[in-house]
UniProtKB/TrEMBL annotation:
Protein name listed in UniProt: Uncharacterized protein
Listed Basic and acidic residues bias regions: 8-22
Protein origin, superkingdom: Bacteria
Disordered: annotated span: 1-31
Native organism: Agromyces agglutinans
Amino acid sequence: MTQTPFDPTRRPDDAPPAEEPRLLPTIDAASPVGRALRESFERLRFAPNVDPAIREAAQSVLDGRSSPRELLRLPQMQPLIERAASAMRADVEAMTPEERAALFTPPGRAGRDA
């Protein structure tokens, strides 16, 4: 019996459909990635130290009135994106080669010979 590899962009077969709309068309809202995406936008929406334009745009994405792309294109988002990219770069540089390779291992391939 062949088991279907885990796909973090799809909801588990036994999970009920999400009540919220999809934030991205290819990611099921009830999937692990869909839930993490929604939580990220909710954190932006309610973060007290974030520019009000970003909070408003995050709410617009959560309501389905605009896309995540529109939020990311806001000039106010650029410093946040740059800080996140710098932090991620530092994290990746601090990883061992094995840890870095694991970042790029497709779901369901962990522990298998390539």
